[in-house]
Design goal:
Protein name: Neural/ectodermal development factor IMP-L2-like
Structural class: mainly beta
Largest sheet: 8 strands, mixed
Distance between the termini: 17 Å
CATH topology: Immunoglobulin-like
GO cellular component, one term: extracellular region
Pfam families: I-set, Ig_3
Low-confidence stretches: 1-21, 34-42, 96-100
CATH superfamily: Immunoglobulins
Subcellular location: Secreted
Number of domains: 1
Keywords: Disulfide bond, Immunoglobulin domain, Repeat, Secreted, Signal
């Protein structure tokens, strides 16, 4: 068992409210269950793994003018990323100006969730979730059927979604103290949602000089400290509503 993750509990007892403790234990244990027994109890990057913990359903029926959400969750080390394909062609979900490419730390461990919002289908489309790390890949596919012969989008459908929807985020992130940390928060919405990050005390992170939010919504921690262990919240908001996603960050002892 990867002891560095489970030993977190002892530290959490002194720093987190009991209402949050069981959730953090489960998140860390879920990642730990994907790792083989007998590995070193430090985040040294020597044990690399990847698994899709939840994929989309085998098939979906899509009615024109509505949306379908396809969700894929993966856990791995280094921290994985998720890419979507439609009929073997990449689906580009983000504006070029927001598409800031960031390499994962080789010692990181994370659980990621990615949601693809489908607004249009032909008679039958195959969507594939491809999870990747620096050395491994895993995939899961689904078939989306069109329930109507019409394929043209209505004006209303072109504006979906209105309320913000966070489509990419980590639920848990572990990395060595001293490393640069990047926590994703990719959002869909119309008009474009405003993104704000908060720490566990509900204080905006802009008050911390070591932290900043990129144009694409990611939170960057310049050099991870033990005191950074916390549950961070990404809030996306526009005139039609708001949505939040939480990421628990655990600073590990380096090799």
């Amino acid at each position: 068992m990867h002891l560095v993750l489970l030993f977190t509990v002892a530290a959490l007892l002194g720093s987190c409210q009991s209402a949050h403790l069981n959730k953090h234990i489960k998140l860390l244990s879920d990642i730990d269950n994907s790792i083989e027994n007998g590995v070193q109890a430090k985040s040294d990057g020597s044990h690399k793994y990847l698994s899709i913990t939840q994929g989309p359903l085998p098939s979906y029926a899509h009615t024109p003018g509505t949306t379908i959400e396809l969700t894929c969750e993966a856990a791995g080390s280094p921290a994985p990323s998720v890419h979507w394909f439609k009929n073997d062609s990449p689906v580009y979900e983000y504006d070029v100006e927001s598409n800031e490419l960031i390499d994962s730390s080789p010692t990181s461990i994370a659980r990621i969730s990615s949601t693809l919002i489908v607004t249009r289908t032909t008679s039958q489309d195959v969507y594939t979730c491809l999870a990747t790390t620096s050395s491994k890949t895993a995939r899961a596919s689904t078939v989306v059927y069109n329930t109507d012969s019409a394929t043209e989008l209505s004006e209303r459908a072109k504006l979906f979604p209105l309320k913000p929807r966070i489509v990419v985020s980590y639920s848990t992130y572990v990395d060595n103290i001293g490393n640069r940390v990047v926590l994703p928060c990719r959002v869909k919405g119309h008009p474009k949602p405003k993104i704000t990050w908060f720490n566990g005390q509900n204080v905006p992170i802009e008050k911390n000089p070591r932290m900043k939010v990129l144009r694409s919504g990611e939170l960057v921690i310049s050099s991870l400290l033990w005191s950074d262990m916390d549950e961070y919240t990404c809030q996306a908001e526009n005139a039609f509503g708001s949505e939040k996603a939480k990421t628990f960050v655990y600073p590990a002892k380096p090799e």
